[in-house]
Amino acid sequence: MTTPTAPSPTAAGSGASATQSFRTTEKYRGGDTAVSPERVSTVARDLLLAVHDVIRRHEVTYPEFQAAKGWMIEVGEGGEWPLFLDVFVEHVVEEVQAATQQGSKGTILGPYYLPGARRLSSPAVLPMRDDEKGTPLLFAGQVRDLDGNPVAGGEVDIWQADDAGYYSGFAPDLPEGNLRGLVVADDDGRFEIRTIQPAPYQIPTDGPTGKLIGAAGWHPWRPAHLHLIVSAPGHRAITTQLYFSGGEWLDSDVAEAVKPELVLDPQDVGDGTREVRYDFVLERDEATAAA
């Protein structure tokens, strides 16, 4: 008798979900912000000049050029532009934005965010299957402002991979909302979340993004991490990820999103559970506060 196995997520399926997620959430990331023609011209012209420079320096041939065009068409048809750009480009955009911001360190959003997570009061347990595999994890901390004052009712939007490295909404066998939640901190800004420790994961390699990775001889792995968007009224939201010391791929994250300040040291608490603590510091958003 053959034991049935869960269907594996595909690049096409992940790409479609990532594209839909982007279309739903682009306003959160400033996607509806008006941009002047002058700004468009400046950035687009410099981007094209950079491409021209690469072609000249590396003496790109017509067959190579045609192969690149074909690959870009495949990326679009497979819905993988959000995946490709989030993995290979977003970390630089985040770096530029972070230069003018204060508070806790941020990093990339990544392609696996989904809006509408279940709202939970702290202490909270993330939605999960009855037989969810993995090491139990307790994640706790406090939301504060730049002066050290607690931010009552801060919201911790958290999502993560499971013990096999898959995200709900992007893998066909996972229940909707699995290991996703919007946790509301208490009046002292404190939160406590019970979940499982996520696994490292491999970005999909059966599509055009994977073809590029294979052709270049790169690896497709991201280290294990928790995704978070931490927000509160009148404050600038922080998008970040928290990693685990000793984990694989910390020094060679394919998305180049790891920062030393975001690596936590889990502690065993004696009952098989590991505990990590991290406090978030939010800066005031004067434009929002004045509105």
Which helices and strands, and how do they pair?
Blueprint: H1 11-25, H2 37-57, H3 62-77, H4 81-88, H5 90-98, E1 119-121, E2 124-125, E3 136-145, E4 155-160, E5 180-184, E6 190-196, E7 201-202, H6 208-216, E8 221-222, E9 225-231, E10 238-244, E11 263-264, E12 267-268, E13 274-277, E14 280-282, H7 286-290
Parallel strand pairs: 1-5, 2-6, 3-13, 3-14, 10-11
Antiparallel strand pairs: 3-6, 4-5, 4-9, 7-8, 9-10, 12-13
Notes on the protein architecture:
- The protein has 291 residues and is of the alpha/beta class.
- It has a single domain (10-291), classed as Protocatechuate 3,4-Dioxygenase, subunit A.
- The chain is 29% helix and 21% strand.
- It has a six-stranded mixed beta sheet, with no helix packed on it. Strands 2, 3, 6, 12, 13 and 14 form a six-stranded mixed beta sheet that branches.
- The longest helix is centred in the N-terminal third of the chain and has 21 residues, at 37-57.
- It starts with 10 loop residues before the first helix and ends with a helix.
Number of helices: 7
Share of helix among residues?
25-40%
Largest sheet: 6 strands, mixed
Uncertain stretches of 5 or more adjacent residues: none
Succession of helices and strands: HHHHHEEEEEEEHEEEEEEEH
Mean pLDDT, all residues: 91
Q: Helices and strands: which structural class?
A: alpha/beta
The gyration radius over C-alpha positions equals: 20 Å
**Strand-residue proportion:** 15-25%
Number of domains: 1
Overall form: globular
CATH superfamily: Aromatic compound dioxygenase
CATH topology: Protocatechuate 3,4-Dioxygenase, subunit A
Q: Please name the CATH architecture.
A: Sandwich
Strand order of the largest sheet: 1-5-4-9-10-11
Reading off the top of the CATH hierarchy, the class is best stated as Mainly Beta
Span of the ends, CA to CA: 65 Å
